[in-house]
Amino acid sequence: MRFRPLLALVLALCLTLVTACSGGAKAVDRSQLTYEDIHNTGLANDCPTLPESARGSIPLNAGDRYQLREVCLHPSEVFVKGEPANKRQEAQFVAGKILTRFTTSLDQVYGDLIVSDDGLDFNELGGLDFQIITVLLPGGEEVPFTFSSKELKARADGAAITPSTDFSGTYRVPSYRTANFLDPKGRGLTTGVEYTQGLVGLGADSDGLERENIKRYVDGAGTMELSITRVDSNSGEFAGVFTAIQPSDTDMGSKDPLDVKITGEIYGRLEQV
Fold first, then answer.
1. Which residues pair with 228 in a beta bridge?
2. Which residue intervals of the chain bear CATH 3.30.2050.10?
3. Regarding predicted confidence, which is higher, 28 or 42?
4. Under CATH, domain 178-214 is a member of which superfamily?
5. In the chain, which end has fewer C-beta atoms inside a 10 angstrom radius, N or C?
6. CA distance 131 to 145
7. Does the domain at residues 59-175+217-273 carry the CATH identifier 1.10.220.30?
8. How far, CA to CA in Å, does 184 sit from each of 67, 90, 205, 224, 256?
9. Residue ranges, CATH 2.40.160.30, the chain
10. CA proximity to 130, closest of 113, 112, 144
């Protein structure tokens, strides 16, 4: 009987060693998984990654044609710049909680990579390049926005993809609402009405009501920095982190947008075409 505590301790130590030797969480190859393996697990929202030991380099030749393919951007943190508490303070980015589940990543994004004597230019052409995301601020406010990489034009120095390559550029942020959206009062851009009947007596086109009544499709512009930290020179794969700053939703022009900062992981593959 007196050996049972000792036996339990030995078994617990063995289990600990087995778990430690298994290496913990590992990157999952989604191509080897079935739909049932991925469904409702969140794995489809994760980007592939590379080990920390991937410190290679991919040299590029001016005049050759290249593309970045299978680019994946997975947001991990979102910050929103709100109004300062008083006029003496500057507005600060506040961390928000991502409410959107499992559909926040951009994936299969691709575009041309142009090599010149001045550096590298990436021009995004398409892919799953926008996602609708909502974040919750500490005060309870929910901020929706369209995370995008549409028409990204980013530039980097050098003539190779290395663990120190940094791209930076601008991109287009599409409207959170589409042209056929109707608000609770039936107001819309291409359908519905431009004012509610109860507001006619107030002057539906007055300055105070015009922004709410007259809907507009409002595009925005964002800036993005892509920092490559890991490169596999054999497969052409690369991984790293990104930071993007862009506007939030304007409710089709009825309110001013907030600045949203998104940070996360990036993965992609270089291919000569």
1. 240
2. 178-214
3. 42
4. photosynthetic oxygen evolving center domain (3.30.2050.10)
5. N
6. 9
7. no
8. 45, 35, 19, 35, 20
9. 59-175+217-273
10. 144
Tell me: pLDDT of 156 over 80: yes
Label residue 77 exposed, middle or buried (CB < 10 Å: 0-12, 13-18, 19+): middle
Q: Which amino acid is at 159?
A: A
Task: Give the span between the Cα atoms of 3 and 112, in whole angstroms.
Answer: 68
Question: DSSP per residue over 200-218, as a string?
Answer: GGG-TTSHHHHHHHS----
C-alpha angle 167-27-161 in degrees, rounded to nearest 5: 25
**126-150 confidence digits (pLDDT tens):** 999 999 999 999 999 999 999 999 9
List the structure tokens of 40: 């409702």
59 sits in which H/E element: strand 58-59
pLDDT of 24 reads 33
How far apart (Å, rounded) are the C-alpha atoms in residues 221 and 231?
A: 29
- Residue 210's CB: how many other CB atoms inside 10 A? 15
pLDDT of residue 17: 44
- Exposed (0-12), middle (13-18) or buried (19+): which is 250, by Cβ within 10 Å? buried
pLDDT digits (tens, 9 = 90+) for 63-89: 899 999 999 999 999 999 987 767 777
Residue type, 30: R
Give Cα 81 distance to the centre of its chain: 17
Q: Which token pair is 5? A: 């505590």
